[in-house]
Design goal:
- The structure is a single chain.
- This protein has 104 residues and is mostly helical.
- It contains five helices and no strands.
- Helix 2 packs antiparallel against helix 3 and helix 3 packs antiparallel against helix 5.
- The relative contact order is 0.12.
- The model has no long low-confidence stretch (mean pLDDT 81).
Length: 104
């Protein structure tokens, strides 16, 4: 694997949208530790963290797929792009369900 491809995949680790989901939830998780609130906060913050990790994993697995470009193609009537978008959404959805079930 060449260096550019490796850097593109490594860039997924600093993806802003994933960290935007995870950091606020992790901060809430860290600061609120009373027993009653701990359960509520843990369950409320659990899924966004899992989704953030899923975003990172999907961008590592599919670094060449740019969803914004595909959506524009779908709006233009490209059926192949619509199939790729649908499959990517199913993949990410199943990955979220699997990760949430595993972490439970």
């Amino acid at each position: 694997m060449n260096f550019e491809k490796w850097m593109q995949r490594a860039a997924a680790l600093v993806d802003g949208s994933a960290w935007l989901l995870m950091v606020p939830c992790l901060l809430v998780w860290y600061f609120f530790d009373p027993l009653g609130m701990q359960v509520v906060v843990l369950w409320l913050t659990h899924l966004p963290v899992v989704v953030g990790v899923t975003i990172i994993l999907s961008r590592i697995v599919f670094p060449d797929i740019k969803l914004s470009e595909l959506i524009a193609d779908v709006r233009g009537g490209n059926v192949a792009a619509a199939v790729v978008v649908a499959r990517l959404l199913v993949f990410v959805g199943l990955l979220v369900l699997t990760a949430a079930g595993w972490a439970k």
